[in-house]
Design goal:
heterodimer, A: 147 residues, 81% helix, 0% strand, B: 8 helices
Chain lengths: 147, 128
Amino acid sequence: MKPIETKQEYNDYVDKKSPNSPIFKNCFNAFFVGGLICSIGQIIMDFCKFKGMDETISSTVVSIVLIAVSAILTGLNIFNKIGKFAGAGSLIPITGFANSIVSPAIEYKSEGYIMGVGGKMFTIAGPVLVFGISSSVIIGIIATLFI
Amino acid sequence: MNFLQSIDWMGLLKCFIVGGIICIIGQILIDKTKLTPARILVIYVTVGAILGGLGIYKYLIEFAGAGATVPLTGFGANLAKGAIQEVKSLGVLGAFIGGVKASAGGIAAAVFFGYLASLIAKPKIKKQ
């Protein structure tokens, strides 16, 4: 075997040796679970509208319910099992955002309830909020030029 | 008329398919690139905010309902939509108020239930 000299060669070597992740199976699982989570959201939304709430409130209720359920499922260590099966299917919906808050909070519980749970909660959710909120501020400022 | 009879099955199917496809894109990013889940979430929320700001995302919401609002792109689009709406009534100040105001429910729920769930959970011992 010839020695590995460049970074490219090394990457090719790693690709050859590492097991192929079954991408079609992963995509199917992601599609199925992701679709299912969204459909549950849609049913909650339809139910809110059926009860006479407007579009904005209904959509907030959907977020709150899905976040609450996935936070509790993460706490009970059930969400991780779903996540292993579903991959992006449970990460991309708002459930993944909730999971990303609860997981580190539980993991760092031993460091105390203020700096451990309170601080580490935002390890992943922090960047999401920073970029999400900052984009919305920029978009709002740009919008003032057009209104 | 009861609730079960009122369910729009065609709308539910659209929601399932669009929500599923958005997740497939995420799965391809996980499998084919070296992006970490945190980066993918950031990309999703930012792309959602941009599409929301350009006024494109609302067509997807009209078509797929929760299939477009539940994925994190919907969260981003909602932030952008809130900022633009608030700018209309408050001017530039609205840019700082609208986004978070529109998604306050979700953010507060995530913080509150996140803290609550971590109180009830036992930290698991990592298997080596």
